[in-house]
Amino acid sequence: MKKSLLIIALIVIVAGIFNIFFGPETQDSKQNAKLLPWQIEITPEGNTRVFNIEVGASNIQQISELLRVSPEIALFRDPDGSYRLESYLGKIKLGPFQARIILNLQANKEQRANFAKNSSSHDATPSGSHQLRLSKDDFELALQMPIDELSYSPAVDTDVEMLSNLFGTPDREIHIDDSSSYWLYPQRGLVILINNEDKEVFHYFPPRNYDLILQDIEQLKQAKAEIPAAEGSSE
Hints:
alpha+beta, ten-stranded antiparallel beta sheet, three-stranded antiparallel beta sheet, about 30% helix, about 30% strand, globular
C-alpha cells in the first residue's frame, strides 16, 4: 500500500528541508492569494475542493494550468520496495502565504511498476527512498492522472489558536510525539499536522479515504513510539 503524503510531509519537516522565503508578488500570485486553506467544500461526488482544486478528481495538467506552474513529477521507491508517484509544484503563492505543494497521484500498482521499468535513472534521497525519473511518454501519461492527496506547507508558522478559530475543534487529535500531533477533520477531508518546532502542514483528501489516512497516522505513531525502545535495547 502506498505511503500517505502526510507521513512523507512529517519526514521532510523533521529533516529541516522546508526553507521557504517570500518573493515578489505577480498578478498570478495575487489571484492565488484569494484561495484560502480553510475554504473547503465537499462536492456531490464526494471529493474535497480547496484552492479551486478538486482532490479526488483534478489531474496534474488541470492543476498546473489553474495555478500557472510547471509541475515536477517523480516516482519514489521506498525502502520496503513500494512505489509512490508524486508531483511537486515548487514554491508558489497559494492562499495568504507562499507555500510548498505536494500532490499524490492516483496511479495503480501496475502503472507504478511500468513507470519504474521505463525509468532511466534514479537518485537516493535523505529518507532512504530512491527518486526515479519518468520517461517522456510516462510523464505525459502522469499529467492526466487525478490526485487523491494534497499537502500544503505554508512558509510561516501558524498560531494554534488561530487555526482552531478558522477550522474549528477537530473531531479527534492524535499525538505523535512531544512536538507534533495531528488534528483530524474526517468530514472535511482534512488533517493538520501541528508541529511545535516547525511549520504546520495541511493535508487534504477525499473523505472516503479517511480510514486509510487514519491507518497511516496510527502506523506513524507506532513507529515513532518504537524508536526509543530500539535505542534503549542497543545500549
